[in-house]
Write a structure and sequence with these properties.
This protein is mainly alpha-helical. The chain contains 16 helices and no strands. Helix 9 runs antiparallel to helix 10. It is globular.
């Protein structure tokens, strides 16, 4: 029995030692990995601190318009530091330098590198926009659109695809391709419902509908959106404009007034309501609403000047002169 107890104790000790050994090894590995991470972070911080002065010096050349010198400085930074916090920012500015030096191929390559490395990166939207703008500045809209479509296909549901999808209908519109632009905006709104560019795209789509007398489609979209955001002043203003275009004057007036009740002194609303009254044949009410614009004290000079421009545009020259004179007092 004593021998058996001794053997059992020995086995227990062996198992206990094994468990402790593996725990100790695991602990040592964790400590080693932690030290490695801390070392890498320390090296990264050191690189960022060292690079900061060099980035600042390169940026000064960039903002002074010394693009050849700035490009050399940025190239040196990218060669010297494999990874650092402002790498994508440097590459987008280097691309801009290449543009100014008429080296489109290198500029496009810089922007493409930013996108390829991380299509959801902080500077990706800027890189995509710069790529598109490079072509547009040379009136190469078809190439711009083709490039953006390739980005959308290659990097779906990313920041890169989002910016590309936002730009495509703008470029289509610039080419006079209205139907394609409308479909482009509809696709963007469907693909990226949470985009920060959503309201801009939505407003552009409504404007296209109004330009081409597609009032029913505009009304349907605005009504649907107002169902989700019933107190949205911008939506109310746009829907009132649609009603006005369709000759639904009572509905338009109610919406304009409801919007102003929610946003008193809104100069854009006051301008639209004045135009509504003028179209309806009531010049006095039109001038009365426009006159409220000058009561906005945020920038009296600007508001008087704006009111003068509105009055002049509609042929009220005497009243316009009075506002211009008030602006320069």
């Amino acid at each position: 029995n004593l021998k058996g107890k001794t053997m059992r104790n020995s086995k227990f000790k062996l198992i206990f030692l094994r468990k402790n050994f593996f725990s100790l090894v695991f602990l040592l590995i964790c400590i080693f990995l932690l030290l490695c991470v801390l070392k890498i972070e320390a090296q990264t911080n050191m690189v960022d601190k060292q690079s900061l002065a060099e980035v600042t010096a390169a940026d000064e050349l960039y903002y002074d318009g010394k693009y050849a010198e700035a490009a050399k400085a940025y190239e040196a930074l990218l060669e010297k530091y494999a990874e650092f916090a402002s790498k994508d920012q440097i590459r987008t500015r280097l691309g801009r330098c290449y543009e100014q030096l008429n080296n489109d191929a290198l500029a496009l390559q810089m922007y493409q590198d930013v996108i390829t490395d991380n299509p959801n990166g902080s500077y990706v939207s800027q890189a995509v926009s710069m790529m598109g703008n490079l072509y547009v500045q040379r009136y190469q809209y078809k190439k711009a659109i083709s490039m953006l479509q390739q980005i959308m296909a290659k990097y779906p549901q990313t920041n890169a695809a989002e910016m590309a999808g936002y730009l495509i209908p703008m470029y289509l519109y610039a080419q006079g391709m209205m139907e394609e632009a409308i479909e482009g905006y509809k696709k963007f709104l469907n693909d990226f419902p949470q985009s920060s560019y959503r309201m801009s795209a939505f407003s552009s789509l409504i404007s296209l509908y109004l330009q081409h007398n597609r009032f029913d489609e505009a009304e349907r979209m605005l009504t649907e959106n107002m169902g989700r955001s019933p107190g949205d002043v911008d939506l109310m203003q746009k829907l009132a404009a649609v009603y006005q275009k369709k000759g639904k004057y009572e509905e338009a007036l109610k919406l304009y007034q409801a919007a102003l009740a929610k946003s008193p002194g809104n100069t854009s609303l006051l301008e639209d309501l004045g135009e509504f009254y003028l179209e309806y044949g009531d010049k006095e009410k039109a001038i009365a609403e426009w006159s409220k614009i000058a009561q906005n004290t945020s920038d009296e000079y600007y508001q008087h000047q704006r009111l003068g421009n509105i009055l002049k545009e509609h042929g009220f020259y005497k009243e316009a002169v009075e506002q211009y004179e008030a602006a320069i007092k």
